[in-house]
Design a protein that fits this description.
CATH topology of the largest domain: Rossmann fold
CATH architecture of the largest domain: 3-Layer(aba) Sandwich
CATH class of the largest domain: Alpha Beta
Number of strands: 17
Strand order of the largest sheet: 5-6-7-3-8-9
Distance between the termini: 31 Å
Shape: elongated
C-alpha cells in the first residue's frame, strides 16, 4: 500500500476495559488502508473490546487510538456487530436507507448508495422482506450492507459469516475485498478459518488482552487452530428438549441464551451431518410484507439523525399491528371500565347523599321530607334555599338535590337537581320520589312528568375528565417504559452502537427516541379522550390548549424517566 496514506486504524500501547480491571493491556494494532486485518482469539480474549475501542465507543485509559488522520470519527466507521444490528420490523432496504441518513449522505445520493450496498452483499433479492422473517444468512448480508452504505474509511466486521452457507461466504468475502480495494481498512473478527484465509491480508492472534502474533493468514491459522474446525449451529429459538439432547450427545455446547451451539473438533463436517436433521427441524421462516418508504429528513445533521431514528421506530410501530392495537385500543377500554365502575356505579348506590329544600311548605310537602329523612337518615341535608341546593350538588357535597315547589296552578311539584356525572344517582332518586309525587298531586302520574330532573353546573362529566386523565397518565408511563426497554434489546444486538456511530452522535439518537415515545404518549391520550368526549365538560379554547400542553409534558416526562431508567441498566461487558 502507499506509505503516504494514513492507516485506517492505529491502536498504540492501549489499555482499556470495563470497571477497574483492564481487558486490553499494552495493545498495539495497525490496520492499513486497503487491507483486511483479521483478529483471532478465544472467547474472552478482548476482541470485542478492541473493536469498541476502534469505534470510539469506550475510552482508552492509556495509549492512543486513531482512525485515519485523528480520533475515530462518527459517520466514517462502518460497524457490523456479531448480532443482527437492524430494526426487525423494517426491511433490509429500509434499514440500510436509515443508516445512510444517519451517516449524513445527501438525500439525492441515498437511493444509489442503498442499492450499491445491497448489491455488494447479494441482499437485493430479499431486500423488501421484514428482517424478522429472514433466515440468519440473509440477516448477515443485510447487517453488512448497513455497515457498507456510508462508504466507511474503517469497516469493523464481527463474525460476518456466522450462520451462513458457503455461497454467502463467497459473496461476503467479495464484499469485504471490494470495500478495501476502494481504500478502506477492515478489522475482521471471525472464527471461520476458511473465510479468514480467503479474505484477510494479515491476521493477529489475541489472548488475555495482548496481541501474541501477527502475520500472513496460512501460517498463523495453522498455529492458532491446528487441524481443528469450529462447528456453529445457530437457532431462531431455544432448542427443544429432543434437539438439545441430540446436540449434547454430539459434543456441542450451548450458549447462555440457548440460541447457539458450538463444537471445536477435527471432524466438524461429520458432526454437522449428524446434527443437521435436528438443526433443520428447529429452524423457521416468517411471512412477507411490502416495504413502506419513510419521509425524508431535513438537511441539518442533528435533526436529520433524530428524524431518521424516530422514523425507523415509527415504521416499526406501524408494522406491529397487535402492538399498535394494544397501544391505542386498550387505554380507551380501560377508561370506559373505570368510568362505569367508579363513576356511575358509585354515584348511583343507596348511600347517595341528598340536599333538600322545601319551598312549598305544605303538610304534604312536609310528609315527603319526613319520608326522605327516614329513608336516607344522616345522608339527607335540609338547606335554606334552592341556590344552596344547587351549589351543594355542583361542589360535590351532595350527589343530588330535591326541590319541592309549586307550579303555576299551585300544585306541588318535585324536582331532582343533578350535575355532570351524577346521572345514575339522579335517576335512582327520581324513582324513589315517584310515589311521593303522586301523593302530593293527589293522583298517579308518569315518572317523567311527576318528578323532573334539572341539571346544574358545567355541562359534561367532571369525573369523566378525571378518569380520562388518570388512565392516560398510567398508560403513557407504561408505553414509555415498554418503548424504552427496546433500547436494551438494541444495546444487546449492537444496533445502539451502530446508531451512536452516526454523525450526530448520541444526542440526536436520544432525542429521536424521546420524540417518538412522546408521540406515542400523545396518541394514547388522544385515544382515551376521544372515548371520553361525549361525557366531558365543555372546554374553552384556552382550557383545551392547556389540556394538550399538559398531555405533551406528561408524555415527554414519561419518555425522559423511561430513557433514564433504561440507561441506568448495566449489562455484563463484552469481551
Amino acid at each position: 500500500m502507499d506509505a503516504s496514506v494514513a492507516p485506517a486504524l492505529v491502536l498504540k500501547d492501549v489499555e482499556a476495559g470495563y470497571g477497574e480491571g483492564p481487558v486490553l493491556r499494552d495493545f498495539n494494532l495497525t490496520v492499513a488502508a486497503g487491507e483486511v486485518y483479521a483478529l483471532l482469539g478465544p472467547n474472552g480474549a478482548g476482541k470485542s473490546t478492541a473493536a469498541r475501542v476502534a469505534c470510539g465507543l469506550i475510552p482508552v485509559r492509556r495509549g492512543r487510538a486513531t482512525a485515519g488522520e485523528g480520533a475515530p470519527r462518527r459517520g466514517r466507521i462502518g460497524l457490523a456487530p456479531q448480532d443482527c444490528a437492524l430494526f426487525p420490523a423494517l426491511t433490509p432496504r429500509e434499514n440500510v436507507a436509515a443508516v445512510a441518513a444517519l451517516c449524513g449522505l445527501p438525500r439525492s445520493n441515498r437511493p444509489a448508495a442503498v442499492e450499491r450496498a445491497l448489491a455488494l452483499t447479494g441482499c437485493a433479492p430479499r431486500a423488501d422482506e421484514p428482517v424478522h422473517s429472514l433466515s440468519g444468512g440473509w440477516r448477515r448480508r443485510a447487517n453488512l450492507s448497513a455497515a457498507l452504505v456510508g462508504r466507511p474509511r474503517l469497516l469493523i466486521a464481527d463474525e460476518p459469516t456466522e450462520g451462513v452457507d458457503a455461497a454467502a461466504r463467497v459473496v461476503l468475502s467479495s464484499a469485504l475485498r471490494e470495500t478495501v480495494q476502494a481504500g478502506a481498512g477492515c478489522l475482521l473478527i471471525s472464527h471461520d478459518e476458511a473465510f479468514v484465509s480467503e479474505t484477510a491480508d494479515r491476521i493477529g492472534v489475541l489472548a488475555q488482552g495482548r496481541l501474541l502474533a501477527e502475520g500472513p493468514p496460512k501460517a498463523l491459522l495453522r498455529q492458532a487452530f491446528g487441524l481443528a474446525r469450529l462447528l456453529v449451529v445457530k437457532l431462531p429459538r431455544p432448542a427443544s428438549r429432543l434437539a438439545a439432547s441430540r446436540f449434547a450427545q454430539s459434543g456441542l455446547a450451548p450458549s447462555k441464551d440457548g440460541l447457539e451451539w458450538r463444537l471445536l473438533c477435527e471432524d466438524a463436517l461429520g458432526a454437522a451431518q449428524r446434527v443437521s436433521p435436528e438443526a433443520d427441524a428447529e429452524g423457521g421462516r416468517g411471512r412477507r410484507a411490502s416495504p413502506r418508504p419513510g419521509r425524508p429528513g431535513r438537511p441539518s445533521v442533528g435533526r436529520l439523525v433524530m428524524m431518521a431514528v424516530a422514523g425507523a421506530w415509527a415504521r416499526g410501530f406501524w408494522r406491529d399491528r397487535s402492538g399498535m392495537a394494544l397501544t391505542l385500543v386498550l387505554p380507551p377500554l380501560v377508561y370506559l371500565l373505570f368510568a362505569a365502575v367508579f363513576g356511575a356505579g358509585a354515584r348511583g348506590d343507596i348511600d347517595a347523599s341528598v340536599a333538600l329544600h322545601d319551598a312549598a311548605r305544605t303538610p304534604a310537602a312536609a310528609a315527603v321530607g319526613e319520608a326522605l329523612s327516614r329513608d336516607l337518615g344522616p345522608r339527607l341535608r335540609r338547606l335554606d334555599d334552592a341556590q344552596a341546593v344547587e351549589r351543594a350538588v355542583i361542589d360535590g357535597r351532595a350527589d343530588a338535590g330535591v326541590l319541592i315547589t309549586r307550579d303555576d296552578a299551585g300544585a306541588p311539584q318535585l324536582t331532582v337537581v343533578s350535575a355532570a356525572g351524577r346521572d345514575v344517582a339522579a335517576a335512582a332518586l327520581q324513582a324513589r320520589l315517584v310515589p311521593a309525587a303522586a301523593a302530593l298531586a293527589g293522583r298517579p302520574a308518569p315518572p317523567s312528568r311527576a318528578v323532573s330532573i334539572r341539571q346544574v353546573g358545567p355541562q359534561g362529566d367532571v369525573q369523566a375528565a378525571y378518569y380520562a386523565g388518570a388512565v392516560s397518565v398510567m398508560f403513557v408511563f407504561f408505553a414509555a417504559m415498554h418503548g424504552a426497554m427496546g433500547g436494551l434489546d438494541e444495546r444487546r444486538s449492537g444496533l445502539q452502537a451502530r446508531l451512536v456511530l452516526a454523525r450526530g452522535g448520541t444526542a440526536p439518537i436520544l432525542a429521536g427516541r424521546a420524540v417518538w415515545l412522546t408521540t406515542v404518549g400523545l396518541m394514547q391520550s388522544f385515544a382515551v379522550f376521544v372515548a371520553a368526549w361525549p361525557r366531558l365538560p365543555d372546554l374553552s379554547v384556552w382550557q383545551a390548549a392547556a389540556a394538550i400542553l399538559t398531555a405533551a409534558l406528561v408524555a415527554l416526562c414519561a419518555a425522559g424517566v423511561a430513557l433514564a431508567l433504561t440507561a441506568a441498566c448495566r449489562e455484563a461487558p463484552p469481551s
